[in-house]
Amino acid sequence: MHTPVVVDVESTGFGRHDRIVEIALITLDPVTWEPVDEYDTLINPVRDVGPTGVHGITPSMVEAAPTFMEVIGAVAMRLEGSVLVAHNLAFDARMLANEFQRCSVAIDLGTGYCTYRATRKKLIVACEDCEIALSHQHRALADARATAELARRLRLAREADRTMAVTINDAPQMVARHTLRRGLADTDSSPMHRIVSRASYPNCDWSVQQYLDMLDWVLDDGVIDATEQLEIRRLADDLGISEEGRAEAHRAYLNCIISAAQRDGVISAAEHKLIARIAAQLKVQDVAIPETSAVPPVDTILHGSRICFTGGGEESRDWLMAIAEHAGFVPVGSVSKKGCDVLVAADVSTSSGKARTARKWGIPILSAKEFVERYGDD
């Protein structure tokens, strides 16, 4: 009897070159189909995040998130030998297969269960018919939880003879991984303050892994209070982990966060503050905290400056270009060292190709919101 694993992904789009920006996996008991494990994380697609209006994910939310390569071990561990369950399985399976292929890992996703095919209804409609709560559609964990309950109600386990399990050849061993989850409720706090990191080692024993998982949860809010400090120390003692072993785990944990923050080549003030805060919480003093990057200021845009635009948002590209022309600027279609003076982005943390080029050449980036506030009423 194979273990069912519910999968849901949010992506930059639907094409062959699109990427996963969020993934959730819920492992179910093979007999009762009740959830026994949950895993979810935002994914840095190393490109534009796609339709923010659909999935609600902005570039700033994924700037410190892991790439798929960094979590492939955790994903593979849950998928190997399981039977996939998804609402529109063809889509989720295709996106997973593409990501594994980019990582040069061979995977056969088998034949799983598709609740969309079983109900012939969109997830929100199927949930309404079965009186299943789904208050945050297009968030991977919320959709996966709803799909898990829908599958249980449909008693898809009876169709076990029609399925084939997932097989993965030479899945990479987890050397280091971290996750960044978004809560199921919207908050006013910065996404950077919802960082959750995990660290693991080649051939580490189960006791170290359990300790790292505990760190993952207690640092979800970036704070380890007195009670949590006591609990993680007790856990380390119970697991037989020495103080030296704890210190090593804490260093690896912090390095995961630093590595993620450095991925776009910029350490923002918020990132620097968060890294320092977590270092203090973990009592790590022998890891260098990167300094805040010097970002070219955009105090005044001179008349005749060449302005390029990237990303979407409430302001349409045509509207922004009209504002630029009215203010005496010259809209340009690409970013180059000598052909662009300022990049205007829907989100200054975007990882779009234009933004990466701008950072490479030291071209300042201004948010679309601030650009409109400065020049929209002129």
Descriptive tags:
378 residues; alpha/beta; Nucleotidyltransferase, domain 5; Rossmann fold; four-stranded parallel beta sheet; 14 helices; 13 strands
Describe the structure.
By secondary structure, the protein is α/β, with parallel strands linked by helices. The chain folds into three domains: 3-169, 2-Layer Sandwich (Nucleotidyltransferase, domain 5), CATH 3.30.420; 187-282; 306-375, BRCT domain (Rossmann fold, 3-Layer(aba) Sandwich), CATH 3.40.50.10190. It contains 14 helices and 13 strands. It has a five-stranded mixed beta sheet with strand order 3-2-1-4-6, sandwiched between helices. The protein starts with a strand and ends with a helix. The relative contact order is 0.11.
